[in-house]
């Protein structure tokens, strides 16, 4: 029991830190897959030991506090998280995802008498809520903590596909929920401009969109071509089904998530998931899964919600794409928050349709002895390494990519045989080692002098 309490407290700290970096600084330190493992471990401990659940546990609240640089605005309806169902790896002996999907459909049927759900791509962007009154844009806000967000209306007015006035909108107040994103093809040009200006680059399109919408320079939103894709509509004038809401969003002049499909069981869902998986690299924006929601909106509302998520919805998360390659060097770069972080140089490897030659190493402790991903200097070629030893140049590593421009080293494979495998990655640059300006013991890595 004492061990479980200590581990739960440790996990709460790790998850809170990851949430803060992701939502408030647009500078994620760990991959989505690593975050989900931490969250699932904490959830498992709390299910086994309910007495360890705290009011401020990440399992009991929606992540993301509003930033103080923008005024706070209260959401008329909470912007909640979604419970996740993870795609099973190919080697899995059990169909856990299929069982969870059938359980979801069965729960909907038992509580509402219907199991027809709308499936749509899960877009990897920044959640935004738009408020229209009598068809005119009144407010734009971030999700924030789900109850209150940041009022970013001036910036939203510069999003190129957000209409200031809707076409043939029903009277009264309408809430449009969706994702703000930057197309993958735009990121290289934006990062080129960042380099020329001496500013840190964005690691992925989601961070670029979030960072842009949180700037006080509203015109930057238009220059970087931020887009908005809507996925839900709330209000007295909204149609009674999720599918009809998507159709009305498009008729009013908004871009809606597509392709969407009505499904009622795990088998039809699997066919839809295979379709999206095949097409997602052709889509202009990052997709990391599929959203399921009960099509009957009133029945979905009647199902209620947990502290974090509506019970009538779920998010199916795709497996991250992986490949093995060799670590050939380590560079150090200053991130957007001033943290000096190591970046792995890799032998180029194809992951999906992208050639990867670099991966984040998070911080110095990741290289040395933490995260449970590091390897044994005495392991033979092809041998599964011991996880208590440090990462070394020449090692074979497994790299994961989930839409990130800078992917992550997810796990270790084996020690290389060349002489360079005896070399530890180089120490941080002098500025980062200086005790007066940086601390390499920080979990976030050393901080560069201003």
Automatic annotation (TrEMBL):
The keyword DNA repair applies. InterPro entries: DNA_ligase_AS, DNAligase_adenylation, DNAligase_N, NA-bd_OB-fold, NAD_DNA_ligase_OB. Transmembrane segments: none annotated. Gene3D superfamilies: DNA ligase/mRNA capping enzyme (3.30.470.30), Helix hairpin bin (1.10.287.610), Nucleic acid-binding proteins (2.40.50.140). Its EC number is 6.5.1.2. SUPFAM superfamilies: DNA ligase/mRNA capping enzyme, catalytic domain, Nucleic acid-binding proteins. Residues 3-442 form the NAD-dependent DNA ligase N-terminal domain. GO terms for molecular function: DNA ligase (NAD+) activity. It catalyses: NAD(+) + (deoxyribonucleotide)n-3'-hydroxyl + 5'-phospho-(deoxyribonucleotide)m = (deoxyribonucleotide)n+m + AMP + beta-nicotinamide D-nucleotide. Residues 418-450 have a biased composition (Low complexity). PROSITE patterns: DNA_LIGASE_N1. This is DNA ligase (NAD(+)).
